[in-house]
């Protein structure tokens, strides 16, 4: 989010400086009609970012996690999936969740998903098949 584009309008590199390595991971979950959008999942480097001061991170309107590399991990995935499943059970919904083949995205082995059926996209097809990759994520990055 801090790194400027690597190419400009002329498609030539804009500078020869090393790229900024600070990262944020954003994860989105929405149904096909966009009538049900889950809170965004944000993964960053710090436990309590200074910019938020003493405010509770839960009051920001999204799920916040942290780890050294700001990447999705199996622990974060399984915790989010379990809470999502419980929410779908409360609403008495049965859903299919399309998931890309990130190594962190695994099926839980210590509990059963009652309201969610996981369907994994085939390898190397995420950019063609995943609806969020076909414009929603790109638009988010442009606004961000």
Overall description:
Helices cover 20% and strands 15% of the residues. The protein has a three-stranded mixed sheet, with no helix packed on it. The protein has one domain (24-143). It is α/β, with parallel strands linked by helices. The longest helix has 17 residues, at 74-90.
Mean pLDDT: 78
Q: What is the C-alpha radius of gyration, as a whole number of Å?
A: 17 Å
User: How many distinct beta strands?
Assistant: 5
Count of DSSP helices? 3
Q: What's the arrangement of strands in the largest beta sheet?
A: 1-2-3
Low-confidence stretches: none
Class by helix and strand content? alpha/beta
The helix/strand series, from N terminus to C terminus, equals EEEHEEHH
Question: N- to C-terminal separation?
Answer: 8 Å
What is the overall shape?
Answer: globular
Largest sheet: 3 strands, mixed
The residue fraction in helices comes out at 10-25%
């Amino acid at each position: 989010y801090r790194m400027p584009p690597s190419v400009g309008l002329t498609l030539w590199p804009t500078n020869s400086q090393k790229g900024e390595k600070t990262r944020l991971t954003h994860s989105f979950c929405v149904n096909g009609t966009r009538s049900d959008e889950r809170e965004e999942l944000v993964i960053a480097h710090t436990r309590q970012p200074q910019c938020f001061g003493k405010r509770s991170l839960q009051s920001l309107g999204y799920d916040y996690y942290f780890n050294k590399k700001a990447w999705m991990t199996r622990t974060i995935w399984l915790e989010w999936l379990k809470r999502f499943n419980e929410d779908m059970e409360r609403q008495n919904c049965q859903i299919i969740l399309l998931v890309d083949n990130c190594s962190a995205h695994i099926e839980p082995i210590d509990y059963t998903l009652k309201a969610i059926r996981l369907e994994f996209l085939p390898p190397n097809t995420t950019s063609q098949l995943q609806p969020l990759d076909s414009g929603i994520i790109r638009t988010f990055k442009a606004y961000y």
